[in-house]
Request: fold
Amino acid sequence: MPPQILYYISSYGYLAIFLLVFLQEIGVPVPLPNELLMLFSGYLVFKGVLLFSVVVLIIISADFLATMVLYNLFYYAGNYIINNKPKWFPLSDIKLNNLRGKISKGGLLTVAICRLTPFIRGYTSVISGLVHIKPRIFIPIALLSSILVCGFYVTTGKYFGPYWNQIIADWSVYQYYILSVVLLILAVYTIAKFNKHYKDKKRMAEDLKYETDQLLTIHMVSETAYVTQGQGVHTAFLELVELLKDEKNIRIVINNEGTGNIFHSHTYGPYYFWKGQRYKGRRIITAHVIPDSSRGAIPFWKQLLPITNLYLKLAYSFADVVVAISPMVEKAIKDMGVKTDVVRIYNPVLTENWARTTENREKGRQLLGIKPNEKLILGVGQLQERKGVEDFIDMASAMPDSKFVWVGGRPWGAFTEGVQRINNRIENAPSNIFFTGLKEIEDMPPMYAAADIFLFPSYQENCPLAPLEAAASGLPVVFRDIKEYSTLYQLPYLKAADTADFIKIAHQLLNDQDYYNEGVKISEKLVEKFDKNKIKAEFLDLYAQVFSNAYKGHLKPLNIAPVISHAISETTEVL
Reply:
């Protein structure tokens, strides 16, 4: 440590630290690098000479103020400086224009990385001013980077205080280590950019091939394929794949099977971001979940709600189009502040998969141990408060002459609301109720066929598939009376205000054949709204629009109009 620096700091304390950081940041040579000065300030905090909070505030203020001086100088007077620059000035007009283009293309990420990189932090302020990065963009980045860098060095100096003498003795070596790390980061970044450029060229070649072949490829992704699959999102994913796979002019690839022209995800985890990064301008996500979906579904959902809201906003903003599966989902996405385009397309119901047969009824009753003359009331959903499973147990207690079966478990294991509480309720449930646990989708048609009534006491839903599957199986379905259904169905449906109302309606269905027949007719009408051919046509139209918008001015859109016309004609025939 140069003795004059020690003298200034010991004599002037915080003021000396402020001036040294400020002067070096604006380009005035000082005997000590800012990184070492900040580490030394942390050491003085360790020794009890200075206060940690004051030192951090002083250094952040000096760094940010110097940054803004340089930025404003070159932002407002940059043209004059460049036009009158001396011959030794290192940046030519061509280099400045190239640099302007690179920073503009790299955007926030490029500026942020440079502001966090030792040795070039100060130059970033100059360059950002010269290329006229907007103040509303640069100022938050500058402030945040000052907080991160200065806070890191001072904190490091404080915690490495006992080893300070060794650090000073080997500082020249550490400098080379730091520089090596910086160069390594830059090398990795360059390789990644080159790799992206290579992949982009490869993608363009693939897309040209697809255009020649007149084959639009949809890359369908869902992380539910890698977890326990007993949930509605996985069913919706599988049924859309099944709906589209037979179309002649499109091809479906799933998860790791390959790549395509359009990316369509049903989930929003890390896999979604990883797979979707190469599809900028062509990313679609179906929104099966909104912040309210966590209500009574996961532990500490109230405390986690702000984080859930923020994460879903990030996920839906990553896409270029969000498919809302109901009016409530569409409203929730817009209320979150998501600026992505939103289209409303409902989940399709493949009625032929759920058609009731005598064979399925006999198979289902045999699996469940239900006698031919016994009345069976069915519930489907995960074992969590949101799905109303505890109310279902209360209904079974009030109707001892009927059999009750709940199909569903916990796909997310311990990360499910009320595990111990609901397990206690199940252990003490009456003998006329049976819990099957998780079932695969191919096991569900016999379960629906075995039942006489379907009760759906869920407290929050978006576009639930279980009651529609039950309706397609010819069952009268009783919903809880919540706002979501009134905006989703816009048709009459059986609804119960509370547990007592569910019990009353169930009794009437079991004892009044005319009322039961009316319930079956209501189910038939309800399913028509989710006709697969109509929904298929809407998805094909969406894919065509996304592809056309993404390649406008580059590739002509694929000719998939005949596919859409064919799907629409099929829909017209059905309706």
